[in-house]
Amino acid sequence: METIINEAKTLIGSLGTYARLIVVGVWFPGFLLFCEVGSLYFRFFGPVDEGLLSYIAERIKDFDSAVMSGLLGVLVLAISIATGYVSRDLAFAISDLWLRKGWRPTRKLSVIYADIRRVHGDSKVDDVAANYPVFRLATSGVGPAPLPRLPDSYVREFCKQWLRLRAPSLNTEGLEIEINMVIGLVMPVALAAAVFLGFVSGWLCFVLAGASIAAATFMMYRIVWARTIETEQAMTNFLFAHWEGLATASAATPS
Hints:
Strand content: under 5%
Number of helices: 11
Structural class: mainly alpha
Largest sheet: none
Order of helices and strands: HHHHHHHHHHH
Number of domains: 1
Distance between the termini: 11 Å
Number of strands: 0
């Protein structure tokens, strides 16, 4: 009975986490982009005395129907979610390119592995890593044929999935959630530069636009740093679970 209750708590927690990711990491950034693009369209191509939100409000009044108003709201919600997913995928693609290029603060998988060995001891780390072929990506590279993803992503995901199953108390889900929430805001912050240029006059528009681009660049820098730290933390926690016998203890617990 206790096991069922714990599994139910885990399921409810996972659903809550997923819902929070959808709202903060997908819908909200998508809605911001929808408002920004719509505002720019009405600024340059629409009526002079009407904006995006006022246009939507007028259409709701014209329909004079709860059903049609609800459908319009659902349409805006669907567009926002779709835009949010595309924006997040684009931001992840930029982040992956940053990592592939090795720009700071990127650290290669071999460097991360070497740092862990230097801190915790060569033999302790190697004894555990030798039992898992995926760690060969950190020691001997990817081989003659390139992999479709970055090598560190394979090691990181293996460690994360292993920790979720065998040592849940050491999983790195918190950092993963933070990355997914922040990365969705990169594109709306960057596009805000165009909004400032379109709506603010004088030298202030250039200051605000430059600040938006700088903020988006800094956010991407921090995301790359966080993804590197996530890889290191997942590997370290994976090794720690073996050193402390948490893997054996977790596996012995009845499910």
